[in-house]
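User: Could you go from structure to sequence for me? I need the amino acid at each position, not a summary. C-alpha cells:
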C-alpha cells in the first residue's frame, strides 16, 4: 500500500507488518465497502440517478479534497481568533462526519484537575466507558505555524470560549476558559496534557484522536508512553489523492474500525496480528543468533590459530589450547551486546540511548550501521576492511565507559571540543555484558566488514522464505520482554564445539 501522508511514528505497527501484511488484513473491509458502493451505483442507475446514495469513504475524500483545501487556506489567513477557531473546527467536523465519527463539540469539564478540554466528539465502548475522545488542537497563537505538531500545541482560550458547555454541566462548577488556561500554565502542551491529565482520569479513553485542521494523530493509551502513534497529514493526503493512502486512512480512522456493530474493534485485531507477526520474527531471531555465533566463532578461531602459528605456539592442546566453551561464551556476549543495543535504540522512552541526538544517530548508533546491511562490498579492501569492527568496538566502549563527565556535571561528549548542539550524554553501563575484560579472546580478533555485515543483516531482516514474500525488517520496538526472553532462553543451552572431522 502507498502511505503518502501517513506517518507510522516509532512503529505504531511494525514497518514490515504495514508493508507486507496490513493490506491482506483489511482487504475484507475494503471489499465490503466497494461492494456496497457498486450496489448503490447499480440501484441509482436503475432509478435514473447520476450519483449513488452511498460511496466509499476514500471516494468521498477524493471528491471533498479541492473545496476542503481551499477552505483550509482561507481559514489559515484569518486574524480573528474566535472565527479562526470556529472555521478550523468546521473543517475537522467535515472529516469526522465523512468517517462517521461523532461530531458534538463541547467543553469537557474535568474535576481533577478542574479544567475544561475542547472535546469534539466521544465514542463509548460496549460497557459504557470512553473508547475514543476526539480532542481539538488548533494553532491559533501567532507563535505556532499551521504545520506545528498538535502535541506541541497548548489549549488556546479562543478554543474554549467558542465551544458550548457539555450537556448537563453545572455552570457554577464549570471552570471559565481563562481559568483553565491559567491553571494549565503557558508551558502545558498536549504532550503533557495527555500524560498528566487525560490518561490519568479514573476512566480514561482507550483511543484519542488529537485533531488540528492540518494533522490528526491517532493515539493508543497503551502505546503513548513509547511515543508510538499514527500521524495523518490531511493537506498531503487530499492534495496528492493517492487511492491507496485514502483507503488506508479510511480503514484506520473510520468509526467501524474503532467499534463495529458487534462491539469489536478492527484496530485491536490489527494490533493482535502485528504482535503475532512479532512473535514470528522472534523465532527467526533465535536461529539468526545461532548462525551469527557460528560465524563469529569460526572467524575468531581462524585468526587465533593463525596468531598462534606465527608465535610458534600450540593451540589445540596444552596450556594454550583454544577452549570452545570460552569462545562460545564470548560470542554469546558479543551477540547479546548487539541485541541489547538494537532494543535500547528502538525504545527512546527508556531514556538510555540518546537517539534524539543526530550526532549519536549518524556517528555512533547501531541503527546507522544497520543501514549498511545490504550495501554490496565489491572489492577485497571493502570486504576485509575493519570499519564495522571499529565502529562496534567504539560503541561498546562508549556504553561501558559512558561519555566524559556523564557521571558528574558534564554533559559533553568531549569537553571543550563539542558545541552544545552536537553534545549528547550517555551514562556508563556498569555490567559484565560490556566489560572488555569479559571477552579476552575476541579482543585479539578483528572481524572483517563482510562478516559483520552478515551478522547485522541476520539480526535486521527476517529469514528468507519461498515464494514472493520479501524479507521483513525486524522491529525491535515491537519485540516485548516475552519475545526477547524466548530468544535468550533459546541460547542458554547453546554450546559451540570444534568439529573433529568434516
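Assistant: Here is the amino acid at each position, in order:
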Amino acid at each position: 500500500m502507498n502511505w503518502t501522508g501517513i506517518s507510522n511514528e516509532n512503529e505504531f505497527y511494525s514497518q514490515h507488518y504495514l508493508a507486507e501484511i496490513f493490506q491482506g488484513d483489511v482487504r475484507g473491509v475494503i471489499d465490503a465497502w466497494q461492494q456496497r458502493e457498486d450496489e448503490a451505483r447499480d440501484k441509482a442507475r436503475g432509478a435514473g440517478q447520476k450519483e449513488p446514495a452511498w460511496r466509499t469513504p476514500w471516494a468521498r475524500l477524493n471528491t471533498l479534497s479541492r473545496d476542503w483545501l481551499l477552505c483550509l487556506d482561507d481559514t489559515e489567513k484569518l486574524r480573528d481568533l474566535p472565527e479562526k477557531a470556529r472555521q478550523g473546527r468546521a473543517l475537522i467536523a467535515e472529516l469526522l462526519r465523512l468517517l462517521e465519527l461523532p461530531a458534538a463539540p463541547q467543553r469537557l469539564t474535568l474535576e481533577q484537575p478542574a479544567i475544561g478540554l475542547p472535546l469534539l466528539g466521544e465514542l463509548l465502548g460496549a460497557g459504557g466507558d470512553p473508547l475514543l475522545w476526539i480532542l481539538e488542537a488548533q494553532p491559533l497563537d501567532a507563535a505556532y505555524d499551521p504545520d506545528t505538531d498538535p502535541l506541541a500545541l497548548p489549549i488556546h482560550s479562543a478554543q474554549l470560549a467558542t465551544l458550548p458547555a457539555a450537556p448537563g454541566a453545572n455552570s457554577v462548577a464549570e471552570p471559565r476558559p481563562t481559568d483553565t488556561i491559567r491553571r494549565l500554565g503557558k508551558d502545558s502542551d498536549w504532550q503533557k496534557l495527555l500524560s498528566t491529565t487525560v490518561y490519568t482520569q479514573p476512566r480514561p479513553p482507550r483511543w484519542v484522536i488529537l485533531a488540528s485542521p492540518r494533522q490528526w494523530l491517532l493515539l493508543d493509551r497503551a502505546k503513548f508512553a513509547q511515543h508510538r502513534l499514527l500521524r495523518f497529514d490531511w493537506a498531503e493526503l487530499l492534495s496528492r489523492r493517492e487511492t491507496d493512502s485514502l483507503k488506508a486512512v479510511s480503514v484506520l480512522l473510520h468509526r467501524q474500525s474503532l467499534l463495529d456493530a458487534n462491539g469489536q474493534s478492527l484496530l485491536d485485531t490489527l494490533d493482535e496480528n502485528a504482535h503475532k507477526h512479532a512473535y514470528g520474527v522472534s523465532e527467526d531471531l533465535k536461529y539468526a543468533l545461532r548462525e551469527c555465533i557460528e560465524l563469529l566463532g569460526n572467524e575468531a578461531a581462524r585468526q587465533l590459530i593463525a596468531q598462534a602459528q606465527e608465535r610458534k605456539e600450540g593451540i589445540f592442546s596444552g596450556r594454550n589450547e583454544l577452549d570452545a566453551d570460552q569462545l562460545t561464551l564470548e560470542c554469546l556476549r558479543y551477540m547479546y551486546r548487539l541485541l541489547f543495543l538494537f532494543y535500547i535504540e528502538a525504545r527512546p522512552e527508556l531514556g538510555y540511548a540518546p537517539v534524539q541526538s543526530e550526532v549519536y544517530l549518524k556517528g555512533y548508533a547501531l541503527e546507522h550501521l544497520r543501514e549498511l546491511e545490504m550495501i554490496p562490498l565489491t572489492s577485497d579492501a571493502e570486504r576485509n576492511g575493519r570499519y564495522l569492527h571499529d565502529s562496534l568496538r567504539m560503541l561498546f566502549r562508549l556504553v561501558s565507559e559512558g561519555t566524559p563527565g556523564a557521571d558528574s556535571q558534564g554533559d559533553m561528549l568531549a569537553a571543550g571540543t563539542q558545541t552544545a548542539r552536537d553534545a549528547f550524554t550517555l551514562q556508563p553501563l556498569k555490567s559484565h555484558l560490556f566489560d572488555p575484560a569479559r571477552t579476552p579472546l575476541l579482543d585479539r580478533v578483528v572481524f572483517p566488514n563482510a562478516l559483520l555485515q552478515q551478522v547485522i543483516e541476520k539480526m535486521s531482516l527476517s529469514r528468507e522464505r519461498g515464494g514472493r514474500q520479501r524479507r521483513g525488517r525486524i522491529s525491535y520496538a515491537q519485540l516485548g520482554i516475552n519475545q526477547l526472553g524466548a530468544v535468550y532462553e533459546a541460547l542458554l543451552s547453546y554450546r559451540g564445539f570444534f568439529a573433529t572431522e568434516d
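One structural detail worth keeping in mind: Residues 266-310 form the longest helix (45 residues).
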